[in-house]
Design brief:
Elements (H helix, E strand, L loop, with lengths): L2 H9 L5 H14 L2 H5 E2 L2 E2 L1 H28 L1 H7 L12 H22 L1 H21 L5 H18 L12 H14 L8 H24 L4 H24 L3 H26 L2 H8 L1 H9 L6
Antiparallel strand pairs: 1-2
Helix pairs in contact: 2-4, 2-8, 2-12, 2-13, 2-14, 4-6, 4-7, 6-7, 7-8, 8-9, 9-10, 9-12, 10-11, 11-12, 12-13, 12-14
């Protein structure tokens, strides 16, 4: 692979992309996708294909979003993160903007292949992504909120697989969760963000409580979901506590990375509430893929 190709690949944050796919698979589970697709003795291949389009649409939208993140941060990155593809000269800002635009358009197009409703949600999601990258990122409150809304919309995009959105309020869970991670990320460069870490710990607890509340309403697979939540809690709180005790940029970055990749486990827990265990295990398989890619490409 040539250096320019690797530059474009690094812009797209490959390690993060499986988390976007996990959101879609979880949203599809909430929508009733499993029951509608895997009927006794019959599999609806057309619905499976729609699910595939949505997964690819979400991956393209996420990739486009992180590419534009680097486009808008190019000048700042020349000082704080000169190793990134744009400030290092591997990819020009113009080429990166074209690349990001093509990814967003591809995501919207693939969503429309699923259903018009999915396409409209993808347009709103693309707009929210650009709004964050261009305007709200620097805001201490609106930035994390905007980022959380993007993840919530991604879950809703998965729910739209059959052309109708059920239980849309479950999207508040990723909104809260990503709000917390974005708060933590404020200390990635300079450290010294203990106050944000405390808030993130409290929001994490609220996220877990929300999932437990849904389990109370739908207790059919309670044991499997609770086991996943225990795993999820261990994965997010261990690096968070370490970052609080040793509050420097390196540990904060690890806490952010753990939070982003652990979203896959949270999505698996949400999915298993509405589907058999194997569907959640399918989502969990995205976690080792993300971990492997995280050894090759930056997560943040």
């Amino acid at each position: 692979m040539g250096p320019a190709f690797m530059g474009y690949l690094r812009l797209a944050r490959p390690a993060n992309l499986p988390t976007a796919a996990a959101d879609i698979l979880a949203g599809m589970a909430v929508s009733g996708f499993y029951g509608a697709t895997f009927e006794p003795g019959f599999i609806q291949t057309s619905l499976l294909l729609k699910g595939l389009w949505l997964v690819l649409a979400s991956v393209a939208l996420y990739a486009g979003g992180v590419v534009f993140n680097d486009v808008f941060d190019a000048e700042l990155d020349r000082v704080e993160r000169p190793e990134r593809p744009i400030p290092s000269g591997l990819v020009s800002s113009t080429s990166a903007a074209v690349f990001g635009g093509l990814l967003l358009l591809t995501g919207v197009f693939l969503a429309f292949l699923t259903h018009p409703l999915s396409g409209y949600i993808a347009i709103i999601l693309a707009f929210a992504i650009l709004l964050y990258d261009a305007y709200f990122k620097q805001s201490p409150f609106l930035g994390p909120l905007n980022m959380g809304v993007c993840r919530g919309l991604n879950l809703i995009l998965g729910m739209s697989v059959a052309g109708i959105v059920l239980h849309w309020w479950y999207a508040l869970i990723p909104v809260l969760y990503i709000f917390a991670i974005t708060l933590i990320s404020r200390g990635e460069v300079h450290g010294k963000n203990k106050k944000h870490l405390i808030w993130a710990a409290l929001i994490y607890a609220l996220v877990i409580f929300c999932v437990v509340y849904i389990v109370v309403l739908h207790p059919m697979h309670a044991i499997q979901v609770l086991l996943l939540l225990v795993l999820f809690a261990l994965m997010i709180y261990k690096p968070l506590v370490k970052a609080y005790r040793e509050n420097h940029a390196g540990n904060i970055k690890k806490a952010v990375m753990a939070g982003v990749l652990s979203l896959i486990v949270l999505d698996a827990a949400l999915a298993v509430i509405f589907t058999p265990w194997w569907y959640g295990f399918l989502i969990l398989l995205l976690w080792p893929l993300s971990r492997m890619l995280a050894k090759l490409f930056a997560v943040t």
